[in-house]
Description:
The structure is a single chain. The relative contact order is 0.12. The chain has nine helices and four strands. Strands 1-2 form a two-stranded antiparallel ribbon. Strands 3-4 form a two-stranded antiparallel ribbon. The chain is mainly α and about 200 residues long. The N and C termini lie far apart (about 55 Å). It has two domains: about 1-35; about 35-195, no CATH class.
Amino acid sequence: MYYKSLKKIYLIKKLETKDSDNIWRTFAKLRGKDVKQCNEIPYLKVKEELISDSEEKAKLFSEAFILSDTSNDADRQKLLNDIRDKKSPGLTIPSVTAEEINQVGYKLKNKYSSSDVIPINILKPLLPSILLPLSLLFSTIIHTGDYPIKFKEAIVTPFYKGKGSLTDANNYRPISGLNSISKLFEYVLRVRIMSHVE
Length: 198
């Protein structure tokens, strides 16, 4: 009886949190669907062959995660040139301000990403001191259309969807560990796009 009341209090506290990841993990536990992610996937199965080599497994996940691109290079290049030449109708792009970055800075989650040069727990307290350089960097990216290669890099981790065989790469979804400064830029861009759409 005492154990059940402690468990109930524990679950209520877990569900009262504002962290959506924590809420969904708790919900999965209550439904009996709690699947622990292991750091190493022992093997994958293709047809009847078991694949245990890390490079081969990475290739299988790559094939499962990558979407095919059906657009042609000429259309993409024309769109990029139009954006660079500012021929997009009704879209004006002012420079990014330090205040914009400061307003979205709180959205950065305290999650470790191995692609971070500056860990998030150091970046957040430093943010007020680096708002000006970040605003210059973000403005340059928006005005030139040149997105830094480091912002495009991510460490992709396969995450089991919770159903189907653990040995099938299609039963995993990709989780991308992005650079925190890249995420900050995306938040700024999202706010701008949403205000333009509304």
